[in-house]
């Protein structure tokens, strides 16, 4: 018994038998804790628990407990496997601590993947060489010499190609743009970045994807239209007749820009008149991706609004409405208000027929109407915002009217938006008041419509 206690292998065997299970239990708890925190270190800890510790314990048992010679094949095989596992552990730990856990915007997060691949290749090459040199006694000096000479020859042969790749990688490392940014170059007016790799940047222009080598971006001028963040805007130029009042034109254009759906929240558009008489409206947007839609909507609405305000957009006027359309609109007003032929003729001079474009706000929530409007053609949807979403209350069609609270001086509770090209007949408040004084029953009918629409709005918002 004394000989067993005094044997050198005994204490090594006891130490390994006790330390290995305890270490495995501790590492298991650490691994579970890292998994719960979604930590990048969970994988390296798992490698240590499942492979490094068991292989290290086996190697110690072979060398110390069983006293196998270090140059034995069995010991070399176990040491080689352990060396490979340690190499994998080093690569995994380096990647987890330096790059995967890097904060957004830091240089570690911007390092191109090809740099990481090259670094991994170098580490693997050096590690394998050290394993074969120290464990198997291989002479790797000649191998490194051959690799060095081959790299020099290859570099001289491909110096132009390699130079382009390196310049592209430097652009990628700097990251002057991100996925989703809009970039303009001399080859493309504007494109959204959809993919960036070590060789090229892919820009989606809407008419196809342009593939630009990063080496070109490294040597040519380009514009990142998404910078600075949150400050993108477009300038829309329009021209009116010199006889049009500038303040009226600026007020109309700014009001249209405030209703453009793509307008950035919390930002205010502005309209300025230039030295040549052109008006420039600056519309703040969220991203350049909304440029085309915002510009199209604004210009389309400006065409209708200019004619409603009796302004000459591009020095052009038209003869809208035609006599036939005006008579049709007058009949719609007469049927809606139950007017006789005599009453229709009395209100003829107070009726005005105008048009709205698709999507325009005909009547804005929170305002007091100054006129009543009667739908001649097209559709109008009454809508409210409830729970962060736009909810439709009802749709008005030919013969329906809105703006009835002009008589009661009350604010409207819902927006009225044109669903189609809309033609309406306007009657100003004073003319409607005179008409109501002559026809008391008409006020009762208008009051009934007001209460009916209020009840509809309450039902819709309550259901939402």
UniProtKB/TrEMBL annotation:
Annotated Gene Ontology cellular component terms: membrane
Subcellular localization(s) per the UniProt record: Membrane
Alphabetically ordered keywords of this record: Membrane, Transmembrane, Transmembrane helix
Transmembrane segments: 12-35, 47-65, 77-102, 114-135, 141-158
CDD domains with a match to the protein in the record: CAP_ED (cd00038)
InterPro entries: cNMP-bd_dom, cNMP-bd_dom_sf, LSM_dom_sf, MscS_beta-dom_sf, MscS_channel_2nd, RmlC-like_jellyroll
SUPFAM superfamilies to which the protein is assigned, alphabetical: cAMP-binding domain-like, Sm-like ribonucleoproteins
GO biological process entries: transmembrane transport
Residue ranges annotated for the Cyclic nucleotide-binding domain, each copy included: 338-453
Gene3D superfamilies: 1.10.287.1260, 2.30.30.60, Jelly Rolls
Signal peptide extent: none
Chief place of localization: membrane
Protein name: Membrane protein
Organism phylogeny: Bacteria, Bacillati, Actinomycetota, Actinomycetes, Mycobacteriales
């Amino acid at each position: 018994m004394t000989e067993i206690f005094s044997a050198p292998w005994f204490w090594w065997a006891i130490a390994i038998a006790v330390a290995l299970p305890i270490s495995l239990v501790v590492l298991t708890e650490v691994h579970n804790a890292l998994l719960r925190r979604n930590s990048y270190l969970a994988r390296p800890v798992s490698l240590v628990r499942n492979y490094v510790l068991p292989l290290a314990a086996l190697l110690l048992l072979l060398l110390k407990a069983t006293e196998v010679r270090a140059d034995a094949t069995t010991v070399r095989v176990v040491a080689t496997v352990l060396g490979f596992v340690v190499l994998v552990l080093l690569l995994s730990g380096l990647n987890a601590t330096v790059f995967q856990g890097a904060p957004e915007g830091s240089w570690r997060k911007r390092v191109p993947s090809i740099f990481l691949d090259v670094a991994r290749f170098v580490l693997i090459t050096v590690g394998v060489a050290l394993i074969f040199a120290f464990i198997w006694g291989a002479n790797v000096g000649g191998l490194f010499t051959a690799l060095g000479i081959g790299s020099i020859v290859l570099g001289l042969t491909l110096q132009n190609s390699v130079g382009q790749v390196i310049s592209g990688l430097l652009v990628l490392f700097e990251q002057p743009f991100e996925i989703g940014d809009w970039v303009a170059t001399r080859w493309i007016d504007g494109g959204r970045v959809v993919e960036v790799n070590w060789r090229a940047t892919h820009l989606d222009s809407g008419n196809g994807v342009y593939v630009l080598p990063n080496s070109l971006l490294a040597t040519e001028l380009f514009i990142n239209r998404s910078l600075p963040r949150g400050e993108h805007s477009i300038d829309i130029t329009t021209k009116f007749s010199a006889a049009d009042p500038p303040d009226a034109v600026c007020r109309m254009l700014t009001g249209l820009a405030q209703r453009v759906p793509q307008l950035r929240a919390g930002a205010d558009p502005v309209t300025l008149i230039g030295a040549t008489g052109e008006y420039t409206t600056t519309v703040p947007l969220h991203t350049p991706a909304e440029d085309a839609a915002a510009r199209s909507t604004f210009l389309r609405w400006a065409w209708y609004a200019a004619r409603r305000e009796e302004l000459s957009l591009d020095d052009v006027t038209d003869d809208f409405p035609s006599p036939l359309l005006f008579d049709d609109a007058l009949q719609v007003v007469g049927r809606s208000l139950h007017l006789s032929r005599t009453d229709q003729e009395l209100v003829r001079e107070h009726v005005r027929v105008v048009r709205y474009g698709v999507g325009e706000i005909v009547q804005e929530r929170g305002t007091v109407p100054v006129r009543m409007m009667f739908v001649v053609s097209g559709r109008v949807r009454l809508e409210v915002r409830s729970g962060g979403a736009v909810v439709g209350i009802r749709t008005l069609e030919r013969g329906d009217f809105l703006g009835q609270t002009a008589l009661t001086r009350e604010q409207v509770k819902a927006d009225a938006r044109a669903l189609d090209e809309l033609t309406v007949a306007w009657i100003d408040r004073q003319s409607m008041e005179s008409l109501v004084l002559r026809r008391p029953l008409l006020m009762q009918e208008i009051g009934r419509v007001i209460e009916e629409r209020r009840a509809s709005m309450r039902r819709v918002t309550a259901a939402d």
